[in-house]
Design a protein that fits this description.
The complex is a heterodimer of chains A (381) and B (253). With 381 residues, chain A is of the alpha/beta class. Chain A contains 15 helices and eight strands. In chain B, a hairpin with a 2-residue loop joins β2 and β3. The chains are: A alpha/beta (381), B alpha/beta (253).
Amino acid sequence: MQQFTSLDYIKNSYNARISQIAEERKMGKKIVGTFCLFVPDEIIFAAGADRIILCGGKNDTVSIAEQYLPRNICPLVKSSFGSIVNNGCSGVKSCSHFGMVDMVVAENTCDSKKKMYELLGDYVPTYVIDLPQRPDSPEALKYFLGELDKFKGAMEHLTGNKVTVEQLKKEIESSNETRKLLHRLYDLRKMDPPSINGVDVLKVMQKQYFLSTEEFKKSLRMLIGEAEQVKTEGAHKPRIMISGCPMSGGNTKVPEIIESKGGIIVAEESCTGTRSFWDLVDESKNPMQALAERYIKIPCSCMSPNDRRIDNILKLAREFKIDGVVYYTLQFCHGYNIEKYKVQQALKKQGIPMLAIETDYGDSDVEQIGLRVDAFMEMLS
Amino acid sequence: MISVGIDSGSATTKAVLVNDGRIAAQVVLPTAFDFLSAAEKAYKNVLFIAGVDEKDINGVYATGYGRNSIKFADRVISEITAHAKGVYHLYPDVNGIIDIGGQDSKVISVNGGKVTDFLMNDKCAAGTGKFLEYTARALEVPIEEFGLLALASNTPASITSMCTVFAETEAISLRARGFTREDIAAGLIKSIARRVAVMARQVGLKQNVAFVGGVAKNAGIKVALETELGISLYVPPDPQVTGALGAALLGIS
């Protein structure tokens, strides 16, 4: 597989971003920490703040969190909380951004996160957007719109800037541009073989809410420019779609195993994949209404019913010509774990094999996962 | 056409030598610490028993937990595919496999010798050979007698814990409450069978199911599994070697 120089640029972007944030803070700009796709970037930027993702993908800070949180909750929640209470997780590399936020903007999604945010408020100012979880009811949309209005007010309060319709429209256009670039990147993965492997794309996706939008778009343009030049050739490899929990920065365990065993990941139905960019915000509508309509449709497993997710999975499987799905869940993520059954039934009907992997951030199960992936690849080829 | 399959398992290393599609020799020995040296030993032994010279071997194929350590193998294959091939060779009508080994249990759905779906137990000794070893120790019974002991019980004790450590504790407390060895052994075996049966139903195993792996030598588990699933299971005379057999057959296909 081709090595792209732009990937090195993206992988090495950490320090520059940290300096940028430090500089912004010095100039009085507010930095908001977020955890979730349900928090619209557009409102944050329209208020003149910057944002940075706080989802933890590293195992190092899990044990710190376990002083406060039960052991049997999801590793993402523990890793993130551990990083924040340890104020930039002293001694852990590439972690200092956790200590650089003026406010956390949280959201009521799963139980573990909801209750974790209640504790987090003691360490950093935490604002919670309440999320209605029956996405298709008109009342839910109205309520969510109200929540986004309140959030807009909170951002205005934090920054001292008024959020204008013009600013919002501009930010919506800018974020849609990012989404279109990501579509273009994912189009390259529809080729057989694709011109870019899944682990590399994941590492890019992990930077989506870490870098500034301008820097992220520039990185994408560099990468797309390089990857579109490549003439792909070679034998067909089993085309894998990952579906399930997010893989936050630092967590590439399962994709690395899949691609080292001869598979090629061509799509991720996850928050670090298609869910983050698939739908655009309607630029012709009132911006707040358009944001509410777009964001409430994200098919997170905290939603009920969540048939939209099943439809998406089947649609992506067709579009990306998937040979097999690896259903990825983090331990104790009840939402995605329970939805596994419905996804499996739906895939079975289409004759698409599925391998379920439940794991955490530790390395103790690398061999066991490797065996399952080996057998799955043998099954697909 | 002569080939050797080596199944490098966590507890035992198995080697099978296949000559023109027939098993000519087989070896089972403890793995101990070093996967590679156990595999070398098994390989040499199986050649010796078959009376075959190394230069006449057309291929060596490795499977099992230590498969990637077997440097002298020509190819490696996962034990899931290997068991499917090996069992299919013995029972051409098979469409399901239950394999309980030293450190994991697997259920495999097969069609014409090809794997169509599978499940393995997760990150835990529940429903594995290790579980049996630990609990046999708690009852102070040699592992070989454990199954027979269980078969002698008419009133199995109820064991609710699936965790190996807790099941051991539970067995000890049942002992303290005056339950017989037979009833506790039957209870422990029932708890494994129930766990594995859930996996088998998840994968949809119904008829023509084979039971393989070291634990299949345990008659108590076989009977308990048959009761749980309501079917009778095929158990090959040497249930430990189907993985090595399947690997050896790679040389033919």
